[in-house]
Design brief:
The protein is of the alpha+beta class. It has helices spanning about 20-30, 55-70, 90-95, 205-225, 240-250, 255-265, 275-280, and strands spanning about 35-45, 80-85, 100-105, 115, 125-130, 140-145, 145-155, 170-180, 185-190, 230-235, 255, 270, 285-290, 295-305, 310, 315, 320-330. The relative contact order is 0.16.
Length: about 325
């Protein structure tokens, strides 16, 4: 594993007196350096024109940042992107240097095309049995330095969307990641759930759609996940509204990374530029996890990043949500 340097600002500065041999320092570092798996989830807001303009320079800069981090040896092991709808998003794949790439379902993937819809312009109520036309793909991309196997997906379908979100073929994607030192692959799941007010659907309808998507995710995990394998959910789950978050937590058997990190105090480091509110409940970008029966996962670092601007505009209407997990194949005896 590559060495990762963490900003231990919360711990304070250690004052060491005397001279210590370099070989001793190296030995201590080797003993104390944990095995780390780093995962970045990022909604890049690459909507098609004319919905969103000025994409090219922003996407180019996102690609450059990931390239620069690779050159510095600090790139995330795994990157999951949402709203990568346009072809110009490919610059991130081309320049970031990740060996393995998985794209989510395309515009026509999935068989269930008949369901409920909502005519935003006409203001009609939901009507059953309408033909739903998907104009955009799922917008999901997964990049990995480690081998990806067994990608599987399910689409939400026309009966699990609300308002403008029905235009995209929103989906759930799961992959297995072969991480060095692990006998069991990590199961990684990403998705982009139905938005809230920006979907332009009535409140009760968009809540019902989000809960339906949560139910689909719960069934999907029951079919595809393994007790032995650790599981990480990373994506834009649009769980900021409290009722959505509560329902999600009740249905999905995972831990909120932010809650665990904050409970562990100084053992888990929050980047000095990251506020607690940005990782806990007032955000739609989240990571959830559970350890496997053979592998213990423990979050040790969280950062919200990709904050810079290009030509006065933010790179996205979201920031990145990056988590570093320590993993141990020896300690864990259960979930």
């Amino acid at each position: 594993m590559k060495m990762i340097r963490y900003p231990f600002a919360l711990i304070g500065t250690a004052f060491v007196s005397g001279l210590i041999a370099l070989s001793t320092l190296q030995a201590q570092a080797a003993e104390s350096t944990p095995d780390i798996l780093s995962i970045l989830t990022y909604n890049i807001n690459a909507l098609p024109s004319p919905v969103k303009r000025h994409k090219t320079s922003r996407l180019n800069r996102i690609a450059e940042i990931l390239k620069e981090r690779r050159e510095n040896g600090t790139q995330p092991d795994i990157v999951v992107l949402q709203e990568a709808f346009v072809d110009r998003s490919n610059v991130i794949i081309e320049q970031s240097g990740y060996k393995y790439v998985v794209r989510g379902p395309g515009r026509k993937s999935g068989k269930k095309q008949i369901g409920t819809s909502w005519n935003v312009e006409g203001g009609h109520s939901y009507a059953k049995g309408q033909k739903i036309q998907k104009f955009m793909n799922s917008g999901l991309i997964i990049l990995s330095d480690f081998e990806i196997t067994n990608p599987v997906f399910t689409t939400f379908g026309a009966d699990a969307c609300a308002g403008l979100d029905c235009l995209a073929n929103k989906s759930i994607v799961m992959i297995e990641i072969s991480v060095p030192g692990m006998d069991t692959p990590v199961h990684l799941v990403t998705s982009h759930f139905n938005s809230n007010r920006s979907s332009k659907a009535p409140g009760a309808v968009r809540l019902r759609a989000h809960q339906k998507q949560t139910d689909i995710l719960a069934k999907f995990l029951a079919r595809t996940s393994s007790i032995k394998a650790p599981l990480i959910l990373a994506g834009d789950f649009n769980t900021k509204p409290p009722r959505r978050y509560q329902y999600f937590r009740e249905k999905i058997d995972t831990l909120d990374v932010a809650e665990v990190c904050l409970e562990r105090g100084e053992v888990c480091i929050l980047d000095t530029n990251t506020e607690i509110s940005e990782i806990l409940y007032l955000t739609n970008d989240k990571q959830f996890y559970r350890s496997g029966s053979a592998i213990l996962l423990t979050p040790i670092y969280i950062e919200r990043n990709f904050r810079e601007t290009v030509q006065g505009r933010p790179l996205s209407d979201h920031t990145g949500y990056e988590v570093h997990y320590e993993y141990d194949v020896r300690k864990n005896t259960g979930n």
